[in-house]
Design a protein that fits this description.
two-stranded antiparallel sheet
């Protein structure tokens, strides 16, 4: 049976090649998310942002200055009580 030493995950996560690939995947996903979002009406000022952590992490976010990002991604109930499905921008962009 293989043995994995403590700290192996941290060591691998900080390898330059891994950090570069994480950034690349984030940028590619953001490009797909931007294209998906562009195909929808009534998105207002909603947009996709990519931020990178200091060492390893990258984050792709659906941002809306009017606080509608969560409702747009996952769906919501309209004022009339009708269920409005989410547009699943991030879910689709990252094939989740």
């Amino acid at each position: 049976m293989a043995k994995v030493y403590d700290g192996t995950d941290d060591f691998v996560a900080h390898l330059p090649e891994v950090r570069s690939e994480v950034r690349k995947v984030a940028e590619q996903g953001a490009a797909r998310a931007t294209a998906i979002l562009a195909g929808h009406k009534h998105t207002g000022a909603m947009h996709i942002e990519v931020t990178h952590g200091i060492k390893t992490d990258s984050f792709v976010s659906l941002v809306d200055p009017d606080d509608g990002a969560v409702a747009a991604e996952f769906g919501h109930i309209s004022e009339s009580g009708r269920a409005v499905p989410g547009i699943n921008v991030l879910k689709t962009a990252f094939d989740l």
